Protein backbone atom coordinates (compact mmCIF):
# COMPACT_ATOMS: atom_id res chain seq x y z
CA UNK A 1 0.00 0.00 0.00
CA UNK A 2 1.32 3.47 -0.79
CA UNK A 3 0.59 4.70 2.72
CA UNK A 4 2.88 2.07 4.33
CA UNK A 5 5.79 3.46 6.29
CA UNK A 6 9.21 1.83 6.23
CA UNK A 7 10.06 0.22 9.51
CA UNK A 8 13.56 -0.38 10.79
CA UNK A 9 14.10 -3.32 13.08
CA UNK A 10 17.41 -3.45 14.90
CA UNK A 11 18.53 -6.87 16.14
CA UNK A 12 22.00 -8.37 16.71
CA UNK A 13 23.32 -11.20 14.56
CA UNK A 14 25.55 -13.80 16.17
CA UNK A 15 28.74 -14.11 14.12
CA UNK A 16 31.12 -15.73 16.61
CA UNK A 17 33.23 -18.60 15.23
CA UNK A 18 35.08 -21.40 16.98
CA UNK A 19 38.87 -21.06 16.92
CA UNK A 20 40.99 -22.31 14.06
CA UNK A 21 43.17 -25.41 14.23
CA UNK A 22 46.96 -25.40 13.87
CA UNK A 23 49.08 -28.35 12.75
CA UNK A 24 52.76 -28.50 13.61
CA UNK A 25 54.73 -29.00 11.46
CA UNK A 26 52.76 -27.93 8.42
CA UNK A 27 53.48 -28.73 5.64
CA UNK A 28 55.09 -32.10 6.40
CA UNK A 29 57.31 -34.21 4.11
CA UNK A 30 57.92 -37.93 4.69
CA UNK A 31 59.24 -40.96 2.86
CA UNK A 32 56.87 -43.81 2.13
CA UNK A 33 56.24 -45.98 5.18
CA UNK A 34 56.95 -43.23 7.73
CA UNK A 35 54.70 -41.96 10.53
CA UNK A 36 53.62 -38.36 9.88
CA UNK A 37 53.77 -37.45 13.63
CA UNK A 38 51.98 -34.08 13.41
CA UNK A 39 50.46 -32.32 16.43
CA UNK A 40 47.12 -30.54 15.95
CA UNK A 41 45.64 -28.07 18.44
CA UNK A 42 43.03 -25.36 18.71
CA UNK A 43 44.45 -21.88 18.09
CA UNK A 44 43.21 -20.59 21.45
CA UNK A 45 44.30 -23.64 23.49
CA UNK A 46 40.71 -24.59 24.35
CA UNK A 47 39.65 -28.19 24.85
CA UNK A 48 37.13 -28.15 21.98
CA UNK A 49 36.54 -31.11 19.72
CA UNK A 50 38.80 -31.14 16.65
CA UNK A 51 37.59 -33.10 13.63
CA UNK A 52 40.29 -34.09 11.14
CA UNK A 53 38.98 -35.39 7.82
CA UNK A 54 41.29 -36.78 5.16
CA UNK A 55 40.84 -36.17 1.45
CA UNK A 56 41.51 -39.65 0.10
CA UNK A 57 44.40 -40.08 -2.33
CA UNK A 58 44.00 -43.39 -4.22
CA UNK A 59 47.80 -43.71 -4.56
CA UNK A 60 48.38 -43.56 -0.81
CA UNK A 61 47.25 -45.91 1.94
CA UNK A 62 47.18 -45.43 5.69
CA UNK A 63 45.45 -42.04 5.92
CA UNK A 64 42.62 -41.88 8.50
CA UNK A 65 40.07 -39.44 9.92
CA UNK A 66 40.69 -38.39 13.53
CA UNK A 67 38.88 -36.73 16.44
CA UNK A 68 40.77 -35.00 19.26
CA UNK A 69 39.78 -32.76 22.17
CA UNK A 70 41.96 -29.65 22.44
CA UNK A 71 44.99 -31.30 20.83
CA UNK A 72 46.31 -34.60 19.57
CA UNK A 73 48.90 -36.26 17.36
CA UNK A 74 48.23 -37.71 13.91
CA UNK A 75 50.38 -40.83 13.72
CA UNK A 76 49.23 -42.23 10.38
CA UNK A 77 51.85 -44.34 8.60
CA UNK A 78 51.47 -43.41 4.93
CA UNK A 79 52.45 -45.72 2.08
CA UNK A 80 52.99 -44.21 -1.37
CA UNK A 81 51.95 -46.96 -3.81
CA UNK A 82 53.08 -45.04 -6.88
CA UNK A 83 56.45 -44.16 -8.35
CA UNK A 84 55.78 -40.42 -8.07
CA UNK A 85 55.52 -37.89 -5.26
CA UNK A 86 52.02 -37.86 -3.72
CA UNK A 87 50.16 -35.43 -1.46
CA UNK A 88 47.53 -36.09 1.21
CA UNK A 89 45.40 -33.27 2.61
CA UNK A 90 43.93 -33.38 6.12
CA UNK A 91 41.08 -30.88 6.63
CA UNK A 92 40.74 -29.76 10.26
CA UNK A 93 37.97 -27.92 12.12
CA UNK A 94 37.22 -27.11 15.76
CA UNK A 95 33.63 -27.64 16.88
CA UNK A 96 32.09 -25.59 19.68
CA UNK A 97 28.61 -26.90 20.59
CA UNK A 98 27.67 -23.49 22.04
CA UNK A 99 28.25 -21.69 18.73
CA UNK A 100 25.91 -22.11 15.76
CA UNK A 101 28.48 -21.35 13.07
CA UNK A 102 31.09 -23.94 12.09
CA UNK A 103 34.75 -23.18 12.67
CA UNK A 104 37.12 -22.27 9.85
CA UNK A 105 38.61 -25.10 7.82
CA UNK A 106 42.37 -25.45 8.16
CA UNK A 107 44.50 -27.75 6.01
CA UNK A 108 47.49 -29.96 6.80
CA UNK A 109 49.46 -30.91 3.68
CA UNK A 110 51.60 -34.07 3.78
CA UNK A 111 53.97 -34.91 0.91
CA UNK A 112 54.89 -38.59 0.60
CA UNK A 113 57.98 -39.47 -1.42
CA UNK A 114 58.03 -42.88 -3.11
CA UNK A 115 60.65 -45.51 -2.35
CA UNK A 116 64.08 -44.64 -3.73
CA UNK A 117 65.23 -47.24 -6.24
CA UNK A 118 68.76 -47.29 -7.67
CA UNK A 119 69.41 -49.89 -10.39
CA UNK A 120 72.64 -51.12 -11.96
CA UNK A 121 73.41 -53.44 -14.85
CA UNK A 122 75.59 -56.42 -13.95
CA UNK A 123 79.25 -55.52 -14.34
CA UNK A 124 81.91 -58.03 -15.31
CA UNK A 125 85.59 -57.24 -15.34
CA UNK A 126 88.60 -59.44 -15.93
CA UNK A 127 91.61 -59.58 -13.63
CA UNK A 128 93.88 -56.51 -13.87
CA UNK A 129 91.25 -54.54 -15.78
CA UNK A 130 89.18 -51.55 -14.76
CA UNK A 131 85.60 -50.55 -15.48
CA UNK A 132 83.16 -47.74 -14.78
CA UNK A 133 80.17 -48.29 -12.52
CA UNK A 134 77.16 -46.05 -13.16
CA UNK A 135 73.56 -46.52 -12.04
CA UNK A 136 71.30 -47.24 -15.02
CA UNK A 137 68.34 -45.57 -13.31
CA UNK A 138 67.48 -43.68 -10.16
CA UNK A 139 63.78 -43.28 -9.43
CA UNK A 140 61.56 -42.39 -6.51
CA UNK A 141 62.57 -40.48 -3.42
CA UNK A 142 62.43 -36.72 -3.69
CA UNK A 143 63.81 -36.75 -7.27
CA UNK A 144 66.49 -34.36 -6.06
CA UNK A 145 69.53 -36.55 -6.65
CA UNK A 146 72.35 -34.17 -5.80
CA UNK A 147 74.38 -36.19 -3.30
CA UNK A 148 76.25 -39.35 -4.26
CA UNK A 149 78.52 -41.20 -1.84
CA UNK A 150 80.27 -44.41 -2.80
CA UNK A 151 81.64 -47.06 -0.45
CA UNK A 152 85.04 -46.32 -2.01
CA UNK A 153 84.94 -42.87 -0.39
CA UNK A 154 84.26 -40.95 -3.59
CA UNK A 155 81.54 -38.32 -3.29
CA UNK A 156 79.63 -36.03 -5.61
CA UNK A 157 79.99 -38.26 -8.69
CA UNK A 158 77.46 -40.62 -10.21
CA UNK A 159 80.13 -42.77 -11.93
CA UNK A 160 83.24 -44.33 -10.44
CA UNK A 161 86.09 -46.26 -12.05
CA UNK A 162 87.11 -49.44 -10.22
CA UNK A 163 89.89 -52.00 -10.67
CA UNK A 164 88.99 -54.89 -8.31
CA UNK A 165 91.42 -57.75 -7.75
CA UNK A 166 88.73 -59.96 -6.19
CA UNK A 167 84.92 -59.97 -6.46
CA UNK A 168 83.82 -56.77 -4.73
CA UNK A 169 80.53 -55.17 -3.72
CA UNK A 170 80.21 -51.41 -4.10
CA UNK A 171 77.56 -49.37 -2.30
CA UNK A 172 76.12 -46.10 -3.55
CA UNK A 173 74.22 -43.81 -1.18
CA UNK A 174 72.00 -41.26 -2.93
Question: What does the secondary structure layout of this molecule look like, with pairings?
Answer:
Blueprint: E1 21-24, E2 28-31, E3 34-35, E4 38-42, E5 49-55, E6 60-61, E7 66-69, E8 71-74, E9 77-80, E10 86-95, E11 106-113, E12 117-119, E13 131-133, E14 137-139, E15 149-150, E16 160-162, E17 172-173
Parallel strand pairs: 2-11
Antiparallel strand pairs: 1-4, 3-9, 4-8, 5-7, 5-10, 6-9, 10-11, 12-14, 13-16, 15-17
Report on the structure:
The chain has 174 residues and is mainly β. It has no helices and 17 strands. Strands 2-11-10-5-7 form a five-stranded mixed sheet, with no helix packed on it. It has a three-stranded antiparallel sheet with strand order 1-4-8, with no helix packed on it. It starts with 20 loop residues before the first strand and ends with a strand. The relative contact order is 0.19. The mean pLDDT is 90.
